[in-house]
């Protein structure tokens, strides 16, 4: 309730909680509990999450490093929290090396969508992803029994690396650029021919009930098929 009712957070009950430890706990336990409370009080999980949400909404392209000189009413975006909560209610989130994760869940009819750091743009990310990891990702995806889709930036190394896959070329607005009408070249890479799949191929939104993406904005050109020269 505090998160939605006002745009700041206070430790209104911390002093009262500390006083209660004086009454109900033995000296040794009291000191330990008070220390834990004081250590977590500046930034509990909910407050850290709220701070992070504000950071990505206030910053340019959600990067958390560059900020525009204009106001932003954070309350306009509160509905996204509820939408994300519903969408992710049955989702399992894991944090482990991609190779072991893919091997763990790989099976027929499984679908893997991978969005690795773009090649030679790794400095834009908060994690390290050396060239060896790009090769390692390719190798584990090549062995997959399930369906694979990977998005990458368009560059000679990736085009050469994924010769065993279908490669589609597209462009999109470059949200990381502060130049108007700037576009970014991307590759969509699959281990199957998506042209043969059922459906009309329209891009859907993350949240059910929202309008689908504008078909005029979607254009993918097949530039490589496995077994054929690029």
Task: Tell me what the structure shows.
By secondary structure, the protein is α+β, with helices and mostly antiparallel strands. The protein contains 8 helices and 5 strands, in the order H-H-H-H-H-H-E-H-E-H-E-E-E. The protein has a 5-stranded mixed β-sheet, with no helix packed on it.
Radius of gyration: 24 Å
The oligomeric status of these chains comes to: single chain
- Low-confidence parts, pLDDT < 50 over ≥5 residues? 1-7
CATH class of the largest domain: Alpha Beta
Mean pLDDT: 76
How far apart, in Å, are the first and last alpha carbons?
Answer: 56 Å
The arrangement of helices and strands along the chain is HHHHHHEHEHEEE
> What is the beta-strand fraction?
5-15%
Structural class of the helices, strands and pairings?
alpha+beta
Name the overall outline.
Answer: elongated
- How many domain modules? 2
The biggest sheet amounts to:
5 strands, mixed
**CATH architecture type of the largest domain:** 3-Layer(aba) Sandwich
Q: How many strands appear in the DSSP assignment?
A: 5
Count the DSSP helices.
8
Strand order of the largest sheet: 1-2-4-3-5
> In CATH terms, what is the fold-level topology of the largest domain?
Rossmann fold
Helix content: 25-40%
